Structure prediction request, 262 residues.
Amino acid sequence: MKILLNNRNEEFDNKSLSISELLQIKKLSFRMRIIKINGTLISKDKYDSTFIHDKDNVQVLYLMSGG
Amino acid sequence: MRLADIEKHLKKFRVGIAGAGGLGSNCAIALARAGVGTLVISDFDAVEKSNLNRQYYFSDQVGMKKTIALKENIIRIRPDISIIIHTIRLDPSNICEVFKGCNVIVEAFDSSEMKSMIIETVQSEMPSIPLVVGSGMAGWGNNELIRFRKIDDTLFVCGDETSDASDDLPLLAPRVGVVANMQANVAMEILMKLK
Prediction:
């Protein structure tokens, strides 16, 4: 599948991936984050059960402390 | 568009500022100067001496609630602006009530947990309201790393998205001011597109 990850094209051999699998493959380990798939915010407890498919737009936003 | 027309347009709108620290105080001042009609400012904290290295307060305001001090400072710049203050700790149960009627909300919290909390709350309970987040502004220099990212029509991020504030990477006026003013710039851009 081909997806858009933070506005960059990414290609995977898998037909679909759970959010948790994607985070593992891409080594995105920083935990303070917000994830949106096609504009929908996914809550943290749904990272295992939410799947990413071909042509999905995945946005990962890291939240740093400071303000 | 001429300055007078811009100010006349911005006067019609209301912007929510969640947190009145380094991001919130500087962003509020920029939006007030630009001519936004109403600002809704929320913070529970008082001004501390250590805040004066980056936040828009004065040394004689130490000990005052930030909401009251910031209102005082904005009124000195623009007496005709309407300022609504909420001196409370924001949480998922009061965010919608506090920012009801705002055309844009600026996230200006210090802690990443609070940033996460307001994004989840606003995006799920006020899904049509644009939210402008600040993430990554600690330290100094590295201008080239500070950026703006539109995630979608309702979520915007300003900052380098990497520098986490700590004792060894503190928050300082120049970089915090850059990100605060970027947030104000995004809020203004959103308002200028509204009818």
